[in-house]
Amino acid sequence: MKSFLTSEEHLNFKRIEKILELRKESSALILLGSNTLELSKEIEKYFLEKENIIKYIPESTNVLYELTSSKNSDFKLINLYENKDINSIIKNLQFYRDFIPEHNLKLIFIFDYEGLEKLKEEAFDFFSTNSFSFQFTDHSYNYEKKDFEKNSKLKELITKYNAYITLSIKQEPKITLDLLFSIINEASNIQIFEYAIEYSNIALELARKYKHKSEEATLLINLSDILRDKGEIKNSFKKIEKALDIFIKIDYKKGIAKALSQKAINYSVIGKLNLSIKYLNEALEINKKINNKNGIANDLNTLGLVFDDLGESEKAIKCYEEALLISKEVNNLRLEAGVLGNLGLISEKKSNYNEALEYYKKALEINKKILNSYGISIQLGNIGNIYRTKGDFDTALKYYEEALEITINIDYKIGISIHFGNIGNIFSDKSEFDKALEYYEKAKNINKKINNKEGLSNIISNIGNIYLQKGNFDLALNCYKKALKINEEIKLNHSIVSNLGDIGNVYLFKKDYKNALIYLEKTLKLSKKYNLKKDISLSLGRLGLVYNKKKEYEKSFEYLNVSLKIEKEIGFIHGIAKTLSNIGYNYVDMGKKELAKKYLKEALLIFNEINDINNYEKINKDLKELNWKINLLQ
Fold first, then answer.
1. Distance of alpha carbon 122 from its chain centroid, rounded?
2. Which of 41-45, 356-360, 610-614 has the highest mean pLDDT?
3. What is the dihedral of CA 361, 364, 368, 369, to 10 degrees?
C-alpha cells in the first residue's frame, strides 16, 4: 500500500481501524472511494488481512436485503469498483438503508470515484446517515525524481543551474531566473510536475525578493499550466487571476494577453467554449494592437481548436491557415508543426486521409528538425491512425510502438496513455481482445490518475467496442453511456456523435430497433450539422442495417447506397467493404443469390487487401454456403 498512498492517506487507514475496533458490537457503515482498480484491490487486500472482516460478493443488486439472512457478525467488505449494476445497487441502498441498524449490519463498501459521487447524489439519505467516508488516490504512477535522468536535456539544464548558483561570484537574479525558466519549461513539457513545481517556487521566491513583477506573473502563468495538466483547474484559475492582476498593474499588455489566453484554454478544458472564444478574442485584439505576432499566431491556433471542438471546421481551418502564415513569417517552427498537425486532424475527421497524411508528415519533418520529441511522438501517432483507418495494421502498429517508446523516454504521461490505447486498438482490430483490454486498462488507469477526461472517455468507448465484439451488449452499452456522459460534460461534439452512434449500434444488436432508430437518427442529424462525412456514412450504414432487420429492404438499400457513395468519395476503404457486404446480405435475405454473390465477392476482395481476417473468413464461409445453395437449387 505504501507506494499507492500519501502519508496523510495512510493516517486515514489508522482512523478506519479505530472505527472497526469501536464498532465490533454495533452496526457500522464505511464508504471508501478509489480512483483505480489496482488501488481498490490493494485496499481490499489490506482489510481482508484483518480479523473479523470477510469479503462478500453480492448475488443481486439488493445487497442489504441479501445480508439480512447472514448469521455471520463479521464486517462484510463489498468491492463495487466499476460494478456494471451500480445504478440499481445505489437505488436499493437508498431504499433499504434502515436495514443496517435494524439487522446490526457491519459493512465496508469500496466504490470508484464516479460511483461514490453517484451515491452522494442519488442515495443522499443513505450517504448522510454515514459519517465514515474516505477517498483514496493512487499515487503509484507518480514519477520519482530519479526519472528526470531519463531526459538528458532536463538533467543538463539542472546541472547548468546548480553550477551557476555555486559559483563564488555574485549571481545575477536575471540570469538565475532565466536558468530556472529553462528547467520549468522542459519539466512542464514532459510533465514531470514535481520538478516543474519545485523550480517554479524557487523562481517565484527569487522574483518576489527582487521585485521582478513581470517574471513573477509569468511564473504564475506557468504554474497555471502545470495545475491544469494535473487536473487542478480551480487552482489554475487562481494563479491566472493573480498573474492578470500583476500584468494589469504594471500595464504589461503582452502579459495581459497571455493571461487571457490561458483563461480561455481553461474554459475550453471544462467545456465552456463560448467563454473560451470570448477571452481568446480579447487576447487576440491586444496582441494585434501591440503587433505581437507570436501571440497572434498562438491565439489563432487555440481558437481553431475551440471551433473544431464546436464542430465548426471551416472557421477552424481559417484560423489555422492564418496561424500557419504568421508562424512561418516569424520562423516559429514548433508552432508551425503544431498547426500543420491540427490541419491534418480536420482533414482526417473529414476522411481526406491522403491530405491528412501529407500534413502529418510535414509536421513530423519539422519536429525532427527542431528535435521536439513531444511533437514527434504526436505526429507518429497521427500517421499510425491513418494507416489503421486504411486497414494497414502492421504499419500502424510500427508507428504506434515508435511513438510509445519516445513518450516513455521523455516521461510524457498523456502520450503514454494515448499510445497504449492506440496499440490496444490494433489488437482489437485483429480480434486479440485480451491483449487489447490489457493495453486499454493501462491507458485508462493513467487517464484517471491525471484526470484526463477526454482520454478517459475514449478508452471507455474502446473497452465498450471489445464488449460489443464479444457479445456482452449490456456491458458495451454501459461503457458507451459512461463515455457519452463525460463528453457531454466537456462538450466534445465529435465524440458525442460517435458515442450516440455506438449506443444506437448496441440497440441494433439487442434487436431493440425502436431505440436503435432514435439514437442513429440523432447521430445522422448531428453528423450532417458538423459535416462529419465518415460519421454520416456510418450512420447511414447502420440505419440501413436496422431497416434490413425490419425487413424493409427498399429503405435499407436507400440508406446503404448513399453510405457507399460517400465512402467512395472520401476513400473510406473499410467502410466500402462493410457496406458492400451489407448490400450483399440484403440480397441474401431477399433470395436474390446471384446479386448477393456479386456484392459479397467485391467485399471479400477488399477485406483480403486490407488484411481484415475476421470479415474475410466470415464472407468466404457465407459465399461457400451460398454457392452450395445455388447449386442445390439448380
1. 26
2. 356-360
3. 70
Q: Is 136 helix (H, G, I), strand (E, B) or coil?
A: strand
Q: Quick one: how many helices (H) and strands (E) in the chain?
A: 31, 5
Burial of 232 (0-12, 13-18, 19+ CB in 10 A): middle
- Phi, psi at 133, each rounded to 5°: -130, 130
Dihedral angle sign, alpha carbons of residues 520, 522, 528, 533:
negative
DSSP letters, 480-500, are HHHHHHHHHHHT-HHHHHHHH
Listed residue (82, 37, 84, 27) closest to 61, CA to CA? 84
pLDDT of residue 187: 80
Q: Check: CB of residue 481 under 8 Å from CB of residue 506.
A: no
The answer to whether 319 and 280 are in contact (CB under 8 A) is no
Distances (CA, A) of 269 to 233, 305, 380, 515: 9, 11, 24, 32
**Max Cα-Cα span within the chain:** 101
Q: What is the mean pLDDT of the chain?
A: 87
Residue 144 confidence (pLDDT): 40
What is the per-residue pLDDT across 463-506, written as a single tens digit (0 to 9) for each?
A: 999 999 999 999 999 999 999 998 888 777 778 999 999 999 99
**Given this model, what pLDDT does residue 489 score?**
81
Q: Measured between alpha carbons, how far is 297 from 292 in angstroms, rounded to an integer?
A: 9
Cβ-Cβ contacts under 8 Å for 303 (sequence gap 6 or more):
277, 280, 281, 284, 319
DSSP code string of 348-405: HHTT-HHHHHHHHHHHHHHHHHTT-HHHHHHHHHHHHHHHHHTT-HHHHHHHHHHHHH
Q: What is the CA radius of gyration of the chain?
A: 28
The CA-atom distances, in angstroms, between 371 and each of 374, 377, 615 are 9, 11, 42
- DSSP string covering 259-281: HHHHHHHHHHHTT-HHHHHHHHH
pLDDT of 230 above 70: no
Grid cell, residue 69, equals: 439472512
Report residue 283 as a C-alpha cell.
Answer: 487576447
Q: What is the DSSP string of 523-574?
A: HHHHHHHTT-HHHHHHHHHHHHHHHHHTT-HHHHHHHHHHHHHHHHHHT-HH
Could you list the beta-strand ranges (E) of 144-259: none
Q: Report yes or no on whether pTM surpasses 0.85.
A: no
Contacts of 117 (CB under 8 A, 6+ apart): none
Residues in the chain: 634
Residue pLDDT, tens place only, 363-420: 999 999 988 888 999 999 999 999 988 888 999 999 999 999 998 887 778 889 999 9
